[in-house]
Amino acid sequence: MEITGEQIVQRIETLAERKALVRDLGIPAQTISNWKIRNNIPTADIILQIARYLHVSVEWLLTGNNSTGVTPEDTALLSKWRKLDDEGKRAVRIQIDGQLNRIRSQKNIEREHETTGDLYAAQKKQPYGDGTETSDAELPTRPHE
């Protein structure tokens, strides 16, 4: 497997802007350009510094592979999370809990439907995230038998 400076820069740029590396890590902009244009590989100490800064593995930075299971998208979300204040984090937790409740409810509806064959009855039993039950007005109409 060939590791190129251009590939490393592309991976870096999926998570941060070049000017952030220049500002926060003190890496000259020309150095970063040389990695890409001249296909120079950063030194090991710089690779480690960038990986820590971006919260990614050295393996991912060099190869694009990640044996940890944490994707660049996960890392980007974590980076955004860390910028939130306590109120913002509380709001995100509420949204996540609501979405997880929605998914659990949907799975319960599917299981009930598989068991009884009655989708209408299964949907009616499912609560909203706030504990109240679904109203008849929100359910599909039951076909006439």
Defining traits:
145 residues, mainly alpha, 8 helices, elongated
Write the layout of secondary structure elements.
Blueprint: H1 5-15, H2 18-25, H3 29-37, H4 44-54, H5 58-63, H6 72-83, H7 86-116, H8 119-124
Helix pairs in contact: 1-3
Description:
- This protein is an all-alpha fold and 145 residues long.
- It has helices spanning 5-15, 18-25, 29-37, 44-54, 58-63, 72-83, 86-116, 119-124.
- Helix 1 crosses helix 3.
- It is elongated, with a radius of gyration of 24 Å.
- The N and C termini lie far apart (64 Å).
- 9% of the residues are buried.
- The model has no long low-confidence stretch (mean pLDDT 81).
Briefly say what this structure is.
The chain is mostly helical.
Instruction: Characterize the largest beta sheet: strand count, sense, and whether it forms a barrel.
Output: none
Number of contiguous helices: 8
Estimated helix fraction: 55-70%
Secondary structure class reads mainly alpha
- Beta-strand content estimate: under 5%
* Terminal CA distance: 64 Å
- Succession of helices and strands: HHHHHHHH
Shape: elongated
Count of extended strands: 0
Mean pLDDT level? 81
Computed Rg: 24 Å
Unreliable residue runs: none
